[in-house]
Amino acid sequence: MTDIAIKVDHLSKTFRLQTERRNSIKEMFVRGKATGVHDFHALRDVSFEVPRGSTFGLVGHNGSGKSTLLKILAGVYRPSAGQVLVDGRVSALLELGAGFHGELTGRENVYLNGAILGLSKKQIDRSIDQIIDFAGIGEFIDSPVKVYSSGMYVRLGFSVAVTLDPEILIVDEIIAVGDEEFQRKCFDHLFELRRRGTTIVLVTHSLTLAAELCDQGIWLDHGRPQALGDVADVIDGYLLDVNARESASRAEAEAAGGEQVGAGAVVAPPVPRQGSGEIRMTKVTLHDAAGAEVGFVTPGEECTVRVHYRSAQSLREVGFGLAFIHESGITVAGPNSMQDDRRYDIEPGEGFVDFYSDSLPLQPGAFNISTAIVDKGHTYDYSDRETELRVRADHAVREPGLTRMLGRWSAEPSTPVRGRA
Asked: CATH homologous superfamily for 279-391?
């Protein structure tokens, strides 16, 4: 295993669960043998290898077996079947405060955890100042950890795990417990460990982080591997499945006559409608490139936002406007038909107007749509964020921000011309 740090071969893990328990001999005698015993298969036939010095990501929904797999790699659980080979000193951060003794101070717990990892007191002495500085908990380092907040727990635990020169680092999602400043320190340090050749196995629900940090990955679904290989391909497959399930769920809810929560949904207005009311927006629907109504849209793809209306009378030169508002309250864009010299003559009855985008510039996230129907400064109808717009990725998104900046880079770098005044 000189080039392989971790090898998992046909691994399975089964837990025996009981819906009823007998906690005493008296209960066993009076109530008889416990019933409702069944096996829960957390992992089924999982196999993969992690090359030394690489970063491996585990993705999947909650309950898919990711944390169970990490605990087996860390030696917390034993596999029910199959084999796991780990070549190197493992440092693991799995659960908040795992391995800490509440009555010991933070400093004493650093030495305790270091000893558990197989380090001598001299080795820990060389790193203790760096650990304390990274944790950033100040004078609390000499207080019992039982008085620590959850954020202080995770700060100290992460600092111990990553600072004591790990050969193999296993990290669960719990680093998300820290504040924004500490999370940035964690991620920066993970990238530094990766550059230094530490083997990292990571569980994260941030697919952007997984795409940036990991080389390879595996997608688990109810304990079964669904995809294994290059992390970008694994994430793409996972997102396509998530999108397909969401679409199917929405279609099923609509077929059952339930409340629509996607395209075409009009949430109860938070405030009464504004405007004189001769014409009203009735709903907003989303449509893909083929014209089919959809529950969400995808960045970079063709889409149509259709504004449906009902008019009580004939109206001339009516303008339509949209506002796309992020869930944080930021207005991202506000196109209106008047900018394109489009004004519409409206007849009594129902109809719709389309806003078409050949490449949706919005990044994945939750948005709301406000609509306006106006005529030269007069407002017929204004709806404030009554319609939800969901933007879903079908691949790992590595570009930050709310929108995509359209443009192009130069083909190659240029050397500035020197010697000219």
From this structure: abc- transporter (atp binding component) like domain (2.70.50.60)
